[in-house]
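PROTEIN DATA CARD
Card holder: Ferritin-like domain-containing protein
Chain length: 236
Origin: Microbacterium ginsengiterrae
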Amino acid sequence: MVKWFWQRDKPKRTLMLRSRGDMGDATRVDFAELAPDLGRFLGQAAYLQLGYFETLTRLIRATPELDEKEALARAAGAALSKHRGIVEIIRAQGDDPTEIMRPFQEPLDAFRRKTIGVRPRETLLAVYITAGMLDDFYLALASSYGETGARVATILREDDDTDEIVSILRRTIESDGEWRSLLSMWARRMVGDTLLVARQALRTERLAADEKRVEPVYTELMGAHARRMDAMGLAA
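Structure generated from the sequence above:
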């Protein structure tokens, strides 16, 4: 049986979100109290991956260079694979994936529209930043859902095939100082909107009184974001 490029075996991500003092059991339990119900968690996570896939496929059409098209296709395939994996978990729960995702279509599409830049490189950077931050956030949330959460975490840790995207962006940044300035500013715009999506995924009725419980996760999200920016030669 022939396997397409996104179906081939891939290495697993090793990123673990931890606070500076290591996120121990007590912190995870406290964070779990802010986690949404399982259906909301799965629906949001699945639709986010579908959104990454859609944006990346749009970028393929806007990219003339064949090697870059292939790199984008691999990243899009990785996002689609994650989407399908989470959808299978939803079905295993006895739910209809379409109905579970439907409540998040409008708000997450609105968020995704904010990531579409005037230039394809802006959009590409936005996908890389937002997908990285939100995958990390949902990995942190996954520990709240027992065995089902562990299955989602395994899916999210799969290789997202973005190494070549980083190379494309780095070459762009190194080619022109104006690109460096433009993409730095664009990346900073993305962070606030992305953190807002993460915040809205939590139990908002409890969040106002328990803001400190999620602070270690926000700290680690920003730390991982800074490392991704450094890898491209951009300041966070």
